[in-house]
Amino acid sequence: MRRRRARSGPPPPSHSPGKQRCRLDGEENNGQHCTSSSSDYSDPVYKEIAVTNGYINRMSRDELRAKLAEFRLETRGVKDVLKKRLKNYYKKQKLMQKEPTNGDSYYDYICVIDFEATCEEDNQPEFTHEIIEFPIVLLNTHTLEIEDTFQQYVKPEINPQLSNFCINLTGITQDHVDKADAFPQVLQNVVEWMRQRELGTKYSYTILTDGSWDMSKFLNIQCRISHIKYPSFAKKWINIRKSYGNFYKVPRNQTKLTIMLEKLGMNYDGRPHSGLDDSKNIARIAIRMLQDGCELRVNERMHGGQLMTVSSSAPVEGAPAPQMPRFRN
């Protein structure tokens, strides 16, 4: 195949890369908003952005990688990801020159949580899933590094004997859960761990999950089993599958954990279906998305025991300081 010549056009600026984020969970709106106060799209800067987006759209994958390398940006990923990365870098640089954004309004930390629960091979509708691993990966949004982790196993009440399928899938043994605390005590330990890190007091934070089920199903069901109210700090979260699909413009069937990693040019690190390892890999995706210019925002919440969507135009609000919920009668 004949190699295409590099095309002329306004190349992205050669500023050193900084960590800025595009608002509204990465929704692009034709490349026209990255600051909440910039509403005058007649400004010549938006024409520059549109022209450069067209130039980037015509670049080959090799040309994209070369330009990203020039700006010391990540060069791994499929072509669409590379284009999105370069467009957002150029867009943010131009809009930051026009009107610097306030970086103080974003979360200081993101708590990535991916529960493991009891399961059976056929998972009949009447089977009750109980949380058996509670992991947290603490992601610092300023350094874009994993700063700390928490992990505790949980003793199930309804089905205390794990199925062989569950053991083989998760790597959690019967001995692990037999020696573990019941869920209320583990949740109390989680609350104390979060308080020690001053989440919700000194530092703003939110929760991030891989899908809706962790909070809307597993935690919701577990709180009923344990006769405790649903914790207020977990009522809103970022569903990274939605964020990834919106930001990179991909269909829902391309937002599974392993596919997201693959499209971003990364391999799974650790043991699949280990709650802690899954959480670390989800955090890696979140880091890459933040680097690519996505402002990960709360997009789901629990209200009246039901799962609801949070509008992308809602203000960025951190979760409340963690407190142990009251027991139900």
Describe, in plain words, how this protein is organized in 3D:
Helices cover 35% and strands 13% of the residues. The chain is α+β, with helices and mostly antiparallel strands. It starts with 43 loop residues before the first helix and ends in a 20-residue tail after the last strand. Mean pLDDT is 87; it is low at 1-39.
- What are the secondary-structure elements, in order, as H or E? HHHEEEEHHHEHEHHHEE
Sequence stretches where pLDDT stays below 50 over 5 or more residues: 1-39
Strands, count: 8
Cα gyration radius (Å)? 22 Å
Characterize the biggest β-sheet: 8 strands, mixed
Count of alpha/pi helices: 10
The portion of residues assigned to helices is 25-40%
Cα end-to-end separation: 72 Å
Please tell me what the overall shape is. globular
Topology:
Elements (H helix, E strand, L loop, with lengths): L43 H14 L3 H10 L8 H20 L10 E4 L3 E2 L13 E10 L4 E9 L10 H7 L3 H5 L4 H14 L8 E5 L3 H13 L10 E4 H9 L8 H7 L11 H17 L8 E4 L2 E4 L20
Parallel strand pairs: 1-5, 5-6
Antiparallel strand pairs: 1-3, 2-3, 3-4, 6-7, 7-8
Cofactor: Mg(2+)
Keywords: Cytoplasm, Exonuclease, Hydrolase, Magnesium, Metal-binding, Nuclease, Nucleus, Phosphoprotein, RNA-binding, RNA-mediated gene silencing, rRNA processing
EC number: 3.1.13.1
Short description:
Helix content is about 35%, strand content about 15%.
Task: For the structure shown, list the relevant keywords.
329 residues; eight-stranded mixed sheet
